[in-house]
Amino acid sequence: MPEARERPPRRDDTAADIQSLVRLGREEPPPVPAPSPQPFLEPAGWPPPDDEPA
């Protein structure tokens, strides 16, 4: 089987995912979102008031 040819490294940062760029030291890790203080809230206006038709 023939040997693989060497290729120069890609210079396009948009061709890589963020985890690869973080490992290479080219990007900072993305911020971790803060947890919601009350994750199980009902949607605003629910249940509808009795005087409005549903």
TrEMBL record:
Segments of this protein annotated with the region Disordered: 25-54
Residue ranges with Pro residues bias: 30-48
Name of this chain's protein: Uncharacterized protein
Protein's organism: Streptomyces thermocarboxydovorans
Source species taxonomy: Bacteria, Bacillati, Actinomycetota, Actinomycetes, Kitasatosporales
